[in-house]
Amino acid sequence: MNTDGDRSIAIVGIGCRLPGGIHGPEALWRLLAEGREAPPDESVTRPWPGRLDPHDRLIEDVDAFDAGFFGIAPREADCMDPQHRLLLEVAYEALQDGGLPLVLGPHVSTGVFVGTSTEDYARVVASANRTDLLGWVGAARASAAARLSHHLRSAGPSLVLDTDRSSSLAAVHLAVRSLREGECDLALAGASNLILAAHTGTAFGAAGLLAPDGRCRFGSAAASGFARAEAVVVVALKRLRDARAANDRIYAVIAGSAVNHDAGRSDDFLTPSAQAQCAVIRRACADAGIGVHELRYIEAHGTGTPVGDRVELSALAALPRYPAALRLTGSVKTNLGHTEAAAGLVGLVKTALMLDHRRLVPTLHTRPISSAVDPEAIELVADIRPWPDSDGPLYAGVSSFGLMGTNGHVVLTALSTGWLAGPENHGRSADGQEGRQGVGHEDGPAHLIPLSARTPEALRTLRSAYVHMLKAADDPPELRDIAWTAACRRDHHPFRTVLTARSHDELLAALTRDDRGGEDNGDAEALVELTRRYEAGENIDWVAVQRPGRTVRLPAHPWLHGRHWVTDEQGSPRAGACPPTASSADDQDPEAWTRAQVTAAVAQVLGHVPDASLPLSDGGITSLMGLELRQSLMESTGVELDTTFVYEHPTIDAVCRHILSRRAREPGTPQLDDDLDTALAMLQQHLGPDECERLLHAELRELTEERTHEENV
């Protein structure tokens, strides 16, 4: 194996949304370990076009999104492809799972690599007659990675890949290369596959690719096609050296990867090639510095199509094997269906979890075994079992093959030296001794557990999630590890509290009483001061405060979802603006009239009205929306506005003041006469002497500053 810490890549975080209500790696592992299938749910529908193929395995609530968390305006969120919206949330869940902040700072470069191959939402946007730029950008495939990079504030590589079914494994391959080359320090490799229109499924069905009973039966004589399924998956990757240095939780290690193409080695464009599949596996093993025979298990592409299974099983049988052992194989598609562009990454997560838990999980629906399965070479794993004994490290391969001929393979290994990856061993070295993050005792001073969220409602929900974690777990994380992870491996949001406890029971009591707990504390004054500083928004050096612990999985920041789906009822962003008529302004107080125009325009452009004293950028305004707001206000108020006015006057209050000021001095506006004395009299009548004087002084100051700037230039 290549043991260079710069070549080996650690999987440090996982986020996923899958059919069957699977939300996160723990839920996925339960499904796999229990040998269950996520069946189609007829109650899951889409806002458009409604019910799809009854055999499709769908994710619930794909129109739900916490736009406010990411500072995205509701109108823009409506236009965003749900694949991109879910990628944002799942990426943050993967970061939280790995104990990594959303924004890592200017010295850490993050790369984003996304595999996706559908643009169904573009059809939805077109059906809603949305022809504005927001609709086009929202549905564009390039936005999938660009959105993540924008919200991570990362200037690292940002790529969207489409190699059909192998898209996500190709994304992992490029992420590995980017980390090795030093282009980035953290990589997010993700994939999304949502079924939002019927045309692709109709084409698959007409070609006979879909199973009549809606089940993938890899390796079975009864295999008759696949069932379509949805998935959104993201893994956080770091160089193994860096992950160890940061005491990160490591699921498994990517030792090598490769991609290739069938390149005419099959009968036609869409027929897979056993020769090419063998070649990509050999190249990935060479990249990992191991022999092919060291792969004890291969997670197959395994769709359950008769032709595809026959080709892949013949390729697996032709590869060298461990001495006196069968090649173990299986396919997660028998549990979830075919997640298409996300399929390779779903297979990689399954295999990483098997290495993490040191268990192989069963492949379903394999009976009766297909004649294509060579019993002298291959065994389909049909039960949950330990990994086979090995003289060295455990290695597994993951395959993903595109319909158009692009093949990918990734070699994974469990950590067998240094820090182990199993959940019971985090923080222990291979000899069983406790490292820096070893398990501690709970008979010392009280532990500090800071909790925070973006809103008060989210903070209450987070407290409830901690209560559920403590009550539901047979063996909850050590209190010291909870405190360490909550303080040192989590983002700290505006709404905050600090809990203190010496035991799980004390923590549970503090959570349910909605107080801070820990009343009998030997250093009460220092604790009160620390809590005051933290809750006031001060950045606390928690690493200096907390005793070191392990990074453990804690409840993620709660999402406060709204419903977002593009409709033709939204119309033009200027549809609700008031027309520029003299009577509309003359008949009202100018300040009230101006505020009404600004509020209406902001509501139409953003889809909501943020607090008038807060920056419009907090409400999700973008440069494009700023131009739309400018045009709307010029039409409704008759005032000429600079293209940069929204940056110079960033709040609703500031915009109102600016427009009032411009209306007071622009010639030709309906409310003013060209005669200065008449204009001043009208201003005093409408605004009052004090407000008129204030506005005039403000304008004089602005003109003076402009003149001074021009002279200096």
Automatic annotation (TrEMBL):
Residues in Ketosynthase family 3 (KS3) domain copies: 6-414
Domain of life: Bacteria
Compositional bias (Basic and acidic residues): 425-445
Any Pfam family matching the protein: Ketoacyl-synt_C
GO MF terms, alphabetically ordered: fatty acid synthase activity; phosphopantetheine binding
Positions of the UniProt region annotated as Disordered: 423-445, 567-591
Protein name, entry field: Uncharacterized protein
InterPro entries: ACP-like_sf, Ketoacyl_synth_C, Ketoacyl_synth_N, PKS_Beta-ketoAc_synthase_dom, PKS_NRPS_Biosynth_Enz, PKS_PP-bd, PP-bd_ACP, Thiolase-like
Species per Swiss-Prot/TrEMBL record: Streptomyces malaysiensis
Keywords assigned: Phosphopantetheine, Phosphoprotein, Transferase
BP term (GO), one: fatty acid biosynthetic process
PANTHER family documented for this protein: FATTY ACID SYNTHASE, SI:DKEY-61P9.11
Carrier domain location: 589-663
